[in-house]
Amino acid sequence: MENDIVHIVQLVEELYSSRDANNVKLIQKQLQEIQKSDHALIVADNLLNQESLNCKFFGALTYSVNLNLNKFDNLDSLNNITRNLLQHLISLINDDKIINGGGMFIIKKIFSNLALAYMMNHSNWLNPLVTLLSTIMNNQVTYPNTIETLEDDDEILKWINAMPEKFTHLVMLFSQIIVEEMMKRELPNNNSVTMHQTTHDYLFPTTEKFLLLSCQKYHEEQFLSLWLQCSNSWIQYCSKAEFDTTIRYQLTSLISFMISLIASQEQEILSLAIESVTEAIEINHTFIKIEQRLQLDSIIFGNWGLQYINYISNNQDFESAEKFTRLIIAFLNVDMLKLAKLLITDENDFKFEFLLNLTGFQGLPLEEEVVSQDMIDFWNEFAYSFTTDLSVLKSSLKLNDDDDDDNDDNEENESKNDGLRKLDLKAQHLFERVILTYWNKIHVPKDIDSLESSFRDEFKIYRRDVGDLIDACYPIVKHPIFHQLVNNIISSIDNSNFADIEASLFLINSICADFSDNSVDDTILNGIVAIFDSKLLELVSLTHQSNDKFQYVVYTTIQFLSSIEWFYKLEQGTPYLSQILNFLFDSMINSSSYQVTSSKAISQICNECRLSLIEFLPNFEAVITEMINNVSVESLIRQRIINSYASIIQGVKNPITQGDSLFKLFDLLDKRSFEVINQLQTTIDPEQRDQMKDYLTSIINCISAIGKGMQLPEDVEDIYTNEELIIVKNYWTIDQLSIHSKILNIIQNFTMLEESMCDDLSIMEAVVDIFKSGLTEPIPGPFVFDQESIILFIEMKFDSLKTSNSYPLLYSLYGSLITTCHSTIQPENVVNLLNKIFVDKLEIIEQDPDIIQSSLSLFGSILQSKPSLIVNDVILFELILSFAIRHLNSQERFVLKSLELFWIKLINLRKGSRQDTVIVKRLFNETQLGNLLTFNSFKYMFETSRSNLEFFIEIIKIIIAKYPLMSSKWLNETFLKLNLERRNSGLKEIESWELFVKKLIMSRGTRGANGLIKEFWLQVNGLVEYIS
Amino acid sequence: MSVRNLCDERIQQERKNWRKDHPFGFYAKPVKAADGSLDLRTWVAGIPGKPQTLFENATFPITISFSEEYPAKPPKVKFPAGFYHPNVYPSGTICLSILNEDQDWRPAISLKQILLGIQELLDTPNPKSPAQEPAWRIFQKDKEAYKKKIIEQTKKYANPK
């Protein structure tokens, strides 16, 4: 054994000194085996008796491992271990090298082990603190206890006085570690309740008395720090114990002393006390009773609080300021309503003054101080007392009109009104000052670019939070603050104070974002007008070309122009449109930094007030040319601006002007794209080719954006008079400038000229969007093409496509065409085209679920609009039906969804003619269709996943609802056949299906069938419903 | 004194919790009605794309609608209509198990968890719960094309520099 110990000691030393990870792993493995062996505790005792701290610690650790392994389930072994641990503890605490030489971690480990032993043995070992005290005092193991209850002051004082200070530290530490261990480990419920009860009855009273009496003797920082740590752990533990059981703790004496430490003269102690009290409130504020609240209130808001703020302010002690603020917020958050009530009287004004001063704590937010950031939440919460919770506040102040229904006393009403007015006024005044404090704080620091990017990101969020705060306060402060901000902008323009302008505009943005053209009032409108009259845009424009110094004011101005979109709809806004658009165009063109935000604002303005912008069309032309020709412009921005331009063109009622503008635009797009397509054909470099293709994709997307922009925004009769309508229709029917051909030509260039673009999915998407944009238009227009052109395009593409990627898009286009043109489309044309794009391609289609799904959706569209387009052609129709039955075995959700719609539409046949109905009914009644559909629906439903069940249920329901007589036969045949198949495959047969069929028939395909089918599906698959 | 129901109480609580503790870069707040009062049942929120993903440097707007049955039932969370993502319906409604009362919704799920869940979903779509065809199809078939589309969409919601 001795040799073994020597070897183990070597291993332990090596474990803590080796830098070779593999070696460490190897040693760990060996030592872990020893720790779990039968003689582990002998090794542990030996190691604890070694001189080396590493060995002592490893010995203590070995005890932990064994206690955690729950090896000791009988009282004797637990008692032995406890005795051994206490014995080791005596040696350790009497060894100066341990206590003063960095060996406390070993003592802590022993304490932790004793705590574990207590948890396992709490029904016998009631008070481990008494054990420790008597063991220390007698310098020998005193276990088991001779007494368990130790609450007598004199007795405890006697012990405290008799022991050296360092041992009082140990007593507190032990108590702390016990409760921390109890919080870490969950015991089985019964054990947990008795453990909490024992702790409450024995350990807590001794600890409490020890803490309260020892602090009368010792006042040094080290002692008080340990005292606070111990108390905090107890507060946490008590909170948990109260949550887990019905036990209740009375912590007032401890907390009272803790609070009294805040007013300590020692900075370190008061700082610790502030943190501890904050933590106590945050953990469970119900422990803080009224006396402690008053005590805390008088400290925070009394002379001490003021002096402390002055002290930390003068010393620029940002850390202490943050801690103190956290305490104040935690304290006040407990009862905001009470604080709000204080505002009605003047005697508490000093408290609000104090909070305002704290909010304005000197220093750059986040970089230096975080007080103002913490206070944002506080003020937000406080503001709700005067907005969301106003009725509660009034009620508690008895200021509600309906508080005393029986009392009609005028004098009392008058007094209530006075009270309300006063409260409103004081709240308004207070929050105005809050906002002005934050107005100062949100100023962008001059040297922001030299600060770290993480600061910039956080500062942005800080400003946004301030924006939210003003949003929350605005119902309280209303117009006066808006006026102040507007006036500040106007006065700051004279001295070009960009920082002030930016801060004011930023807050105005937050206020304006919530208005609409219906809700905004004249005061606000006049304020906005005053800003535009103040030459703000002129001044900010001057900064465009400057360096990034002014970027914030430009951004915020653009944001401002975006946030007042309601302004442009009102007549007061119209006169300013020109300067606003010019400003935005300048911002967009002169600096790439502002392109995204400017283009968004332009897009918003154009969409909101297209009619007022017609006269600005010429202003757009230069910008549009730049957008199209400049390859480096972002696609998104190009599309946005062109869509905006198209929205304005749409607003032009004169089709000639409209046509002229469009012609120029398409001509530009046509020439430019043709040029690039040609270049592409001769370009080899892959990177260059990618760039060119991206640019071309953006150009074709622009055409699609024009198509969207040109869609009529309202009903035709709301836009045009009868006379105007005739002119518009004539113009676009004749199409003198051949705009339709121009667009078709562009499409052809994109989809037929260059091989690499012919099969490009993004280009095809844009082209399909272009065609679709005119399909729903009620009158002729630039994007309203004749159906032959679209059909021809689809046909040509199916002929030339080398891959099937675009099939779904083309099917979707054809489906949309049939939905809108079904009344004029010829059935033979449909059959012809379907033969080319479906029948001839069936082999390819069958390989790809997306194409299967999109072709089924196309048939669904036909059945929804005009079933006769396919129903009458026997060969084609039968092919489609067998296709739709075959794919019931699909596992793809979208395919099944399309199938569900297909079958529902076919069986319902809502748009079917009499002849269509006869054909379909005959197919179901006289052929195998009904049988096949029922059989396959059930067969694949039983095989499908739970999430796809709904699709099959709907198909089965419609069969039963529409063919009630036949479905009984189909169902019986289905189950007989299914069971035969299952028998042949060695599967368990479906049981009780006869009853299910009866119930199903009785449901007549109503909603009741859903549960029935689902239940049967679960039964057949041997599953249970997991949602109760 | 006004009587609040469970739904409003819970929303107020969520609001407080959110203000006290919300992840960096996110925002969430109730909208204001025309009269300036707060509509607690309808919120607007912003989800920042995770760094080092296709969604980074942008904040994606969502609306959150709480029904009377909240928290027994989940709120309805929507991106703008047409949002390009395999698990977002064409209407913008998000298909996420924790937002589905038949799946993983539990009344204890907080607003913060919902928004973090959506942030996670942005870059890790669930191909087993497709909600829109275009994005789902391309996500399955052509990752490069999907990537391009997402980058384009992210630009639309890019954070101001």
UniProtKB/TrEMBL annotation, chain A:
Keywords: Nucleus, Transport. PANTHER family: IMPORTIN-13, TRANSPORTIN 3 AND IMPORTIN 13. The keyword DNA damage does not apply. This is Importin N-terminal domain-containing protein. Transmembrane segments: none annotated. The keyword Transport applies. GO terms for cellular component: cytoplasm; nucleus. GO terms for biological process: protein import into nucleus. InterPro entries: ARM-like, ARM-type_fold, Importin_beta-like_NTR. Belongs to the importin beta family. It comes from the Eukaryota. The lineage of its organism: Eukaryota, Fungi, Dikarya, Ascomycota, Saccharomycotina. It is found in: Nucleus.
TrEMBL record, chain B:
The active site is at C95 (glycyl thioester intermediate). GO terms for biological process: protein sumoylation. It is found in: Nucleus. Pathway: Protein modification; protein sumoylation. InterPro entries: Ub_conjugating_enzyme (IPR050113), UBC (IPR000608), UBQ-conjugating_AS (IPR023313), UBQ-conjugating_enzyme/RWD (IPR016135). It comes from the Eukaryota. GO terms for molecular function: ATP binding; SUMO transferase activity. Its main location: nucleus. Belongs to the ubiquitin-conjugating enzyme family. This is SUMO-conjugating enzyme UBC9.
